[in-house]
């Protein structure tokens, strides 16, 4: 039976004198009553009323099943409302529930009840469920890149649960609908803890208590983490492993062959030639030259780890590899391990570490929250994949795309989307300075402002696709007078910007958006529409602009740089 508005309003009317007047709190109360058959007087202490919940809206302990349930409740069909809940759990909630080393004055009665339950029944708890309950479709929540990223961050806190209970405890994440639906995937997580050989490490404290340990680790130990965790090991990196034909990866492969297979290079040289890697971890324990690292994430060094994995795979049948296994196990490289750091700090470290390598500035923003939200937007609105991570789309199988809710077999690319936003804003002079767009925080935040998430994805796509026909449109204008329009090759960005405005102001825009804004194919009719706009409107506007002073003189002197400025567009 669904929880109706009438039921919520009645519970609120009955209890607001003692439990407060926040309507959504009663959605959680009714869910506990219905789902677990709990009488109201017992359910009330298990629900957070009035806030100060640190991300936990309710709890229940099922002694028979030996399960502890923690809840976040949203009386809404919008799974996006869970974003704030995840952040509160990540930033403070998990530690407040399972490992608080100090008390706070404003924690609510629910947390006191929950901690009391843990104190008395910890030996009876085998599983901890964190359930996100709302009125929407759990399958849609599962496909959200934003929630998936936040869930991964939250899973990194599992070690606090194991530490609290003194033993491994199963942690399960679920999205559930109050209407009875359960998400297609139950995310059951173990704590990832690995041994590392790291002698004589050095330590540096950060501005807010962050700790960095520096030493030399074995490549084989990093490979073991990757083999166990897969792509999850790289989730905080700016990109997936690059193609083995890239110059950097070829160099690493060549070095591995010389050291391990051919024996022509001393294994100790590898540490000197390699820049090193950086890892973020939830916890690091040092003891007698060894380290135990909990929930590691590689911030830079993905190319080294993936190239080593490919090297081992390619040489599986090579006798020399087996004979020289001891040599391979002595490959070392410098490693920095960062702990006690907030996600924002880790993101900044990732960006700054990768600035030292040949990485484009737009790659450094791949994991920004706005990029994750845009990925969700294009998937939800149009079934299109947004490639925020370099090479990520190429690594996906048809099956993976289908499971992710992707119906298009082309991707919207991060850099091209940024250029589209700029031309649609008439900010054409920045197209020749794209590095600055991504390196200047203020400019970047303007280009990728939260307002983009409210825009019609179909209309974004209309402007995005136009860039793939600019050369043809320029040629068609040149056909109308090669000498008269000889400058048009320099005016491509201006033409693109004018085309965007022409499309967005077209009286048949909604019809065109339905016809041409649903996918990335460049339809013949769409191209004809662009050609009409380019010839009958944009060409004439450009012709008028260049006839005015001071532009007429510049054209005569073949000085065309003004065609790439905002000033000429504004005229």
What does this 3D model show about the protein?
The protein is of the alpha/beta class and about 575 residues long. It has 3 domains: about 5-190, no CATH class; about 195-360, no CATH class; about 365-570, no CATH class. The chain contains 27 helices and 15 strands. The strands form 4 sheets. Strands 1-2-3-4-5 form a 5-stranded mixed sheet. Strands 7-8-13-9-12 form a 5-stranded mixed sheet. A 3-stranded antiparallel sheet has the order 6-11-10, covered by helices on one side. A hairpin with a 5-residue loop joins strand 7 and strand 8 (about 210-220). Helix 21 (about 455-465) packs antiparallel against helix 23 (about 490-505).
Oligomer: single chain
Radius of gyration in whole Å, from Cα? 28 Å
How many strands in all?
15
* Largest sheet entry: 5 strands, mixed
Classify the beta-strand content into a percent band: 5-15%
The strand line-up of the biggest sheet is: 1-2-3-4-5
- Arithmetic mean of pLDDT: 88
In percent, how helical is the residue content? 40-55%
Sequence stretches where pLDDT stays below 50 over 5 or more residues:
none
What coarse outline follows from CA principal-axis ratios? globular
Q: How many alpha or pi helices?
A: 27
Structural class: alpha/beta
Number of domains: 3
Distance between the termini: 62 Å
Question: What is the element layout, followed by pairings?
Answer:
Elements (H helix, E strand, L loop, with lengths): L4 H15 L3 H14 L3 H4 L14 E5 L4 E7 L8 H17 L10 H13 L5 E8 L3 H6 L1 H11 L2 H8 L4 E8 L9 E3 L3 E5 L4 E4 L5 E8 H11 L17 H16 L6 H5 L3 E4 L2 E5 L2 E5 L2 E4 L1 H13 L4 H5 L1 H4 L3 E8 L3 H12 L14 H14 L2 E3 L10 H6 L7 E3 H11 L9 H6 L1 H7 L9 H10 L3 H9 L13 H13 L4 H8 L7 H23 L4 H6 L9 H5 L1
Parallel strand pairs: 2-3, 3-4, 9-13, 14-15
Antiparallel strand pairs: 1-2, 4-5, 6-11, 7-8, 8-13, 9-12, 10-11
């Amino acid at each position: 039976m669904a929880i109706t508005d009438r039921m919520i309003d009645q519970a609120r009317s009955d209890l607001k004198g003692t439990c407060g007047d926040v309507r959504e709190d009663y959605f959680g109360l009714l869910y506990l009553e219905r789902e677990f058959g709990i009488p109201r007087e017992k359910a009330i202490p298990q629900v957070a009323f009035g806030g100060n919940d640190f991300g936990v809206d309710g709890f229940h302990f099922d002694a028979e099943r030996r399960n502890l349930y923690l809840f976040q409740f949203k009386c809404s069909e919008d799974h996006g409302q869970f974003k704030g809940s995840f952040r509160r759990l990540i930033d403070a909630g998990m530690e407040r529930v399972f490992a608080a080393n100090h008390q706070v004055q404003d924690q609510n009665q629910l947390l006191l009840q929950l901690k009391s339950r843990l104190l008395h029944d910890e030996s009876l708890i085998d599983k901890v469920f964190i359930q996100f309950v709302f009125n929407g479709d759990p399958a849609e929540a599962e496909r959200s890149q934003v929630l998936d990223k936040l869930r991964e961050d939250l899973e990194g806190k599992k070690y606090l649960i194991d530490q609290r209970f003194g033993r491994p405890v199963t942690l399960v994440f679920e999205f559930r609908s109050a209407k009875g639906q359960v998400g297609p995937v139950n995310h059951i997580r173990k704590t990832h803890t690995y041994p590392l050989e790291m002698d004589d490490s050095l330590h540096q404290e950060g501005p807010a208590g962050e700790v960095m340990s520096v030493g030399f680790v074995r490549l084989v130990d990093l490979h073991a983490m990757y083999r166990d965790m897969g792509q999850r090991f790289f989730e905080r990196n700016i990109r997936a492993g690059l193609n083995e034909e890239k110059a950097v990866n070829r160099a690493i492969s060549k070095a591995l062959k010389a050291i391990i297979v051919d024996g022509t290079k001393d294994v100790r040289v590898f540490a000197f030639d390699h820049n090193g890697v950086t890892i973020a971890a939830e916890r690091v324990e040092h003891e007698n030259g060894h380290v135990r690292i909990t929930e590691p994430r590689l911030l830079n060094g993905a190319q080294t780890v993936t190239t080593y994995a490919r090297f081992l795979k390619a040489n599986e049948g090579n006798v020399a590899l087996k004979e020289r296994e001891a040599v391979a196990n002595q490959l070392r490289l410098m490693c920095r391990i960062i702990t006690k750091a907030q996600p924002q700090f880790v993101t900044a470290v990732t960006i700054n570490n990768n600035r030292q390598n040949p990485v484009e500035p737009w790659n450094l923003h791949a994991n920004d929250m706005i990029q994750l939200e845009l990925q969700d937007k294009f998937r939800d609105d149009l079934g299109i994949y947004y490639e925020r991570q370099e090479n990520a789309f190429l690594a996906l199988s048809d099956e993976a795309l289908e499971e992710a809710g992707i119906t298009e077999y082309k991707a919207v690319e991060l850099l091209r989307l940024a250029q589209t936003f700029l031309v649609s804003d008439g900010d054409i002079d920045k197209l020749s300075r794209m590095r600055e767009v991504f390196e200047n925080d203020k400019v970047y935040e303007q280009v990728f402002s939260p307002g983009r998430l409210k825009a019609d994805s179909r209309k974004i796509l209309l402007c995005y696709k136009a860039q793939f026909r600019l050369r043809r449109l320029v040629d068609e204008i040149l056909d109308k007078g090669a000498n008269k329009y000889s400058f048009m090759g320099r005016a491509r960005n201006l033409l693109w910007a004018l085309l965007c405005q022409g499309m967005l102001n077209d009286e048949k825009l909604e019809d065109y958006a339905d016809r041409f804004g649903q996918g990335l194919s460049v339809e013949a009719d769409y191209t004809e529409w662009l050609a009409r706009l380019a010839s009958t409107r944009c060409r004439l506007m450009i012709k008028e602009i260049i006839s005015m002073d001071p532009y007429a003189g510049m054209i005569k002197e073949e000085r065309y740089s003004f065609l790439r400025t905002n000033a000429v567009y504004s005229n």
